[in-house]
Amino acid sequence: MNNLIEFFKNNFHYFLLAVLLVLSILMLGKSMSYSGYKLARFSQSITGPIQKSWSGVMHTFSLGPENEKLVQQNIALLREQDNMFIVKDDTTLTQMSEVDSLHTKRMRLYDYSYAHVIFKTTDQAFNYIIVDKGSEDGICKDMAVTSPTGVVGVVSDVSKHFSAIIPILHPDSRISAIVSPINQVGTVVWEGPDPEVAFLENIPQHLEINVGDSVMTSGFSNIFPKGMLIGTVKEVMVGKNASFLTIKLRLATDFKRLGLVYLIENQYKSEIDTLKSGFKTE
To answer: Which residues, listed in sequence order, are joined to residue 111 by a DSSP beta bridge?
Structure first.
C-alpha cells in the first residue's frame, strides 16, 4: 500500500493532466452533434493515447486483473452458445440446435472480442460511443456491439487504435428484432430523449403483446446473432396508423453506466453481403 501511495505522489501531475483531458472531452460531449462528433474524433487522435493509458491505470486499480480474467471467461462461454454456429450438412447450411449426426458439423459463424468505453454520450439527439480498440485489434466496421446485459449498437467507424459505435440511442439506428413468445418480426428504433426507452415498430395490431415480453435480435441482419436481448415490453398502445401497435421498450443495457462492451463479428458477412447485393429490389 505504501508503494502505491508513493507511486501516485510521484506521478500526480500526469494523472491530473489525464483527468483534465478527459473532463474537457466530456464537456465537449454535452453539446454533441454530428459535427461535434467529428471534432471529438479529431481530438481523440491527439488525446487518445493518453486516455488509453489512463484507462489502463483505472482498470488496473478499479477492475483489477481478476475482473479482466472474468471477462475472458465470459467470452469463452459466450463463444460456445448455439447461436454462434450453424450446422453444415453437405452443401446445406441451417441454424444449429445440436449436432446429432456424423454427417454434420458445427461451423463458427460469429466470434467475440471486448473493449472498454472511453467516450460516450447518452443525452444528445445523436449519441456516440468510442472504445479503446481499433483495426489493429481486429475490429472492423459493422460489427455488432453488446453489453453484459443486452444490445448496445453497431460499429460505425474504425481507426488504428479506436472504434466509434452508433448505439441504439441514435435516430439512424435500426435493429431487426422479434418479440417473444410470438416471434413476430419488427424494428427497434429510438425517438429520444430517454436513454432507457426505445420503440418496437411494425407489429400488427391484432397480435397479442404483453408487458414484460422479451424483445430480441432476429438474426436477419447478418450483424447480430439471433436471440440477443434488446429489452422488455414496457407499454403497448395503438399507433397513429391503426393497423400497427406502438410498443415502448425498456432497454436491457444501462447506457449511463456502460463501461465494457462485447464486439461480435460475423465471419462470413462479406460473403453473405455479396450474395445479397445481387438481389433485385424492384
So the answer is: 265
Is residue 35 within 8 A of residue 124, CB to CB? The reply is no
Provide the pLDDT for residue 262.
Answer: 97
Mean pLDDT, to the nearest integer, of 196-203? Answer: 96
Residue 132: C-alpha distances to residues 33, 36, 118, 165 (Å): 21, 19, 6, 11
Can you give the pLDDT at residue 60? 46
Q: What is the CATH number of domain 175-252?
A: 2.40.10.350
Name every residue whose Cβ is closer than 8 Å to that of residue 75 and which is 6 or more positions away in sequence.
Answer: 112, 113, 114, 262
pLDDT at 40 over 80: no
Place of cell 415502448: 248
Phi, psi dihedral angles at 22 (to 5 degrees): -65, -45
pLDDT, position 184: 93
Burial class (CB within 10 angstroms; exposed 0-12, middle 13-18, buried 19+) of 134: buried
**Among 206, 186, 207, which residue's Cα sits nearest to residue 249?**
186
Which three cell numbers mark 10? 510521484
**Strand pairing report for 260-266 and 144-146:** antiparallel
Domain ranges within the chain, ordered by starting residue? 2-78+110-168+257-268, 81-108, 175-252
